[in-house]
Amino acid sequence: MSFALVLLAPEAELELAAALCFDEGALGVETQEPGMMLMPGTPPLPEGRGRCIAHFASEGEALEAARILAGELPTLEVPTPIEIVEENWAISWRAHHQALRVGPRSWVHPPWDVPTLAAGEVAIAIDPGMAFGTGAHATTALCLERTDELLQEFPGADLLDVGTGSGVIAMLAVKLGAGARVCGTENDPVAIDAAKEGAALNGLAAERISWQLRDCEALPKPFDRPFQIVIANILLNTLIELAPQIADKVARGGRLVLSGLLAPQGDEAEAAYVAQGLQALARRERDGWLRVELTRP
Q1: Binning pLDDT at 50, 70 and 90, where does residue 162 land?
Q2: What is the DSSP letter of 218?
Q3: Is a pLDDT exceeding 80 seen at residue 89?
Q4: Listed residue (206, 134, 192) closest to 164, CA to CA
Q5: Do 108 and 90 belong to one domain?
Q6: 81: closest CA among 128, 26, 156?
Q7: What number of other Cβ atoms are within 10 A of residue 174's Cβ?
Q8: Measured between alpha carbons, how far is 45 from 179 in angstroms, rounded to an integer?
Q9: Same-domain pairing of 252 and 114
Q10: pLDDT per residue over 237-277, tens digit each?
Q11: 252 and 147 share a domain?
Q12: How far apart are CA 232 and CA 294, in angstroms?
């Protein structure tokens, strides 16, 4: 037997809740984000909240984790731990994560479900237990799709991934032949460590992607210059706050892809970057989430 904590949290706190669960000894953590396709029979998520399912070896560990989580994150809904059969949750947890086509030439998959690739296709392995983005959420899927398409349009382009999370966008760019300068920025050291582990899992040389724990306005050479492709999959308030520094990283004729946006937030996000001299190009919506694309003329 093992015990599970099934937590409901605001989306912005979901990754932090997962990281705290790991800190308290969780054997594995699954996150279900708003907009994610859920397995049949899974209860729907409340509006604006995600679900974090953490598994512990004993009831005592689960109760102690619940106590600490309730103190650290007052907005978290922390129920009584659920007793479950060990082998059943392990099989069920893995069943939630399968290989997913994310672009015309690209797949994202957990280590235990490797897709059969056609000629010219690539795949990125992501461990869902790291809880920093597997590609299943609509916003990440939209960014991965456009990364694939843009690297077809601009072969060998350099790429900056702002708020890289698991690093899946930067890793996919490398697999698709991006240029020498591929960089992922983060403000969370745990995410940076997860991205480095993900790169190693995918057989990428440690120096192939520059993982930077800093804002993109403070990048060292040669990453201080503008990029042909810039991806920023973060929340609206942060996108607006960082608009001057993110826009500054878009080369002339380059593309900026914004996501992490609910459909009604597109106008506000777009306006913040048009004010920085960029020109709106296109939008794409999926499951109520939006991708906005701009260019620097």
Answers
A1: very high
A2: G
A3: no
A4: 192
A5: no
A6: 26
A7: 20
A8: 40
A9: yes
A10: 999 999 999 999 999 999 999 999 989 999 999 999 999 99
A11: yes
A12: 12
Number of domains in the chain: 2
Q: Is the peptide bond before 222 cis (omega within 30 degrees of 0)?
A: yes
- From CA 152, how far away is CA 104, in angstroms rounded? 10
Distance CA 160, CA 18 (A): 26
Are 209 and 182 in contact by the 8 Å Cβ rule? The answer is yes
Question: Using CA atoms, how far apart are residues 195 and 122, in angstroms rounded to an integer?
Answer: 18
Residues 237 and 161 in one domain: yes
This prediction's pTM: 0.72
Crossing angle of helices 138-153 and 168-175, in 10° steps, is: 30
Structure tokens belonging to residue 176: 């698709």
Q: What is the rounded CA–CA span in Å between residue 144 and residue 286?
A: 13
Longest dimension (CA), the chain: 60
Answer yes or no: do 90 and 226 share one domain. no
Same domain? For 58 and 132 the reply is no
**CA dihedral sign of residues 40, 145, 194, 248:** negative
Contacts of 77 (CB under 8 A, 6+ apart): 7, 8, 9
Question: Whole domain around residue 62: which residue ranges?
Answer: 2-95
The CATH number for 28's domain is 3.30.70.120
Structure tokens at 71: 């103190």
